[in-house]
């Protein structure tokens, strides 16, 4: 089997066939218990559902979806008499976004064993993965590699800012828009009654966290990006959701007797789901990747419930694989020269990001390039430092 072939299943375990990349890849042979192999190649002839062990008893949540009740035109909660729980629609694929972040082809090198160990431990234990490292070391792209390899569909990304709250990650409710819509309807129909519960779903949309916690059969991948920027209370607020595996939407809880189930939009484009009694409980706990640049400390209780991974700076082999995945030009002598220059420059500057290398390689290999002072000045601008000292140099 060539290095490009995907992982296969044998006796219930995932492995590479004899003569595969595992012998040639720098990180060596994969461990027998790994589900995520760290190659970026999708699982072949097997699904994650077949090989993922059941959760620990303390991490089993057992959520089920609401389903329509036939005959009265309304929706209700799933009853115990149903043969099997329903589930939200399968997540959509977003190949364009994945290719933009990872490149059109897998990297061709295996992840560091520590990375694969911790990703697999997070999968099996159903625990969040807190990923730290310098900017540009690939923290965010790890979520996309996991999703591509395990076939988990579109990554749900929650970019954190200083204004981010737990509610903004769970859902958004446009109360003002609903009042305006009701007023417009009253004006057109000459009606004066208050807006009823029947239209509330049109003004409520689940956020990335809220969508990830829906009762999917297979876990969704949730990327909580740049967690350093969060408000001081958000880690503990988030911890409560992760431990409970569920959340409530007060606006729907208040009308649950009149409207036991409501269809709302999700974070996935053009997708909706039905929520019963204003409450959501997950079925498969999501694969949660939380990124941090290490700029702040988090509460001990939060850290205790996360697995922590620190990503090292990529070496020459991994940088060459990144260039090949995105540009297919790693064998170009000019690209190899730039990789070496980049490593030397990164060491001097205290670290540079891999996308800065991609910018330089694209400039060199896609244009008629003649070395000279102008090129050196351009390279200086492209490979600028990533800290506050950059403006003073």
Automatic annotation (TrEMBL):
Signal sequence region: none
Region: Disordered, residue numbers = 1-31, 63-99
Output the Gene3D superfamilies linked to this UniProt entry: P-loop containing nucleotide triphosphate hydrolases (3.40.50.300)
A Pfam family that the UniProt record links to this protein: AAA_5
Q: Which InterPro entries match?
A: AAA+_ATPase, ATPase_dyneun-rel_AAA, P-loop_NTPase
Q: Where is the AAA+ ATPase domain?
A: 125-317
Q: What is this protein called?
A: MoxR family ATPase
């Amino acid at each position: 089997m060539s290095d490009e072939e995907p992982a296969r299943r044998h006796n219930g375990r995932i492995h590479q066939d004899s003569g595969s990349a595992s012998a040639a890849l720098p990180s060596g042979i994969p461990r027998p218990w790994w589900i995520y192999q760290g190659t970026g190649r999708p699982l072949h002839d097997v699904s994650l559902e077949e090989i993922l062990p059941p959760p620990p008893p303390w991490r089993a949540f057992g959520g089920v979806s609401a389903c329509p009740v036939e005959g009265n035109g309304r929706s209700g909660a799933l009853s115990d008499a149903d043969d099997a729980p329903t589930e939200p629609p399968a997540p959509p694929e977003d190949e364009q976004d994945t290719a933009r972040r990872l490149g059109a082809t897998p990297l061709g090198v295996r992840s560091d064993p520590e990375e694969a160990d911790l990703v697999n431990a997070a999968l099996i234990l159903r625990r969040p993965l807190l990923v730290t490292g310098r900017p540009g070391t690939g923290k965010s792209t790890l979520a996309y590699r996991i999703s591509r390899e395990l076939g988990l569909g579109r990554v749900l990304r929650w970019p954190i800012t200083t204004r981010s709250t737990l509610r903004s990650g769970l859902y958004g409710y446009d109360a003002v828009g609903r009042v305006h819509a009701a007023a417009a309807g009253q004006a057109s129909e000459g009606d004066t009654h208050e807006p009823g519960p029947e239209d509330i779903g049109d003004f409520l949309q689940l956020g990335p966290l809220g969508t990830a916690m829906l009762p999917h059969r297979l876990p969704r991948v949730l990327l909580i990006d740049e967690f350093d920027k969060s408000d001081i209370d958000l880690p503990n607020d988030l911890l409560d959701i992760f431990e409970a595996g569920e959340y409530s939407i007060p606006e729907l809880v208040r009308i649950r007797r009149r409207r036991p189930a409501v269809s709302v939009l999700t974070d996935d484009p053009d997708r909706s789901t039905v929520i019963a009694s204003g409450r959501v409980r997950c079925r498969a706990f999501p694969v949660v990747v939380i990124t941090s640049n290490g700029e702040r400390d988090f509460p001990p209780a939060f850290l205790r419930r996360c697995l922590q991974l620190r990503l090292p700076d990529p070496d020459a082999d991994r940088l060459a694989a990144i260039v090949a995945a995105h540009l297919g030009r790693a064998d170009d002598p000019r690209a190899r020269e730039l990789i070496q220059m980049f490593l030397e420059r990164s060491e001097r500057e205290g670290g540079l990001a891999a996308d800065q290398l991609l910018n330089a390689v694209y400039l060199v290999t896609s244009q008629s390039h003649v070395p000279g002072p102008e090129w050196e000045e351009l390279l200086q601008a492209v490979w600028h430092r990533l800290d506050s000292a950059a403006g003073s140099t």
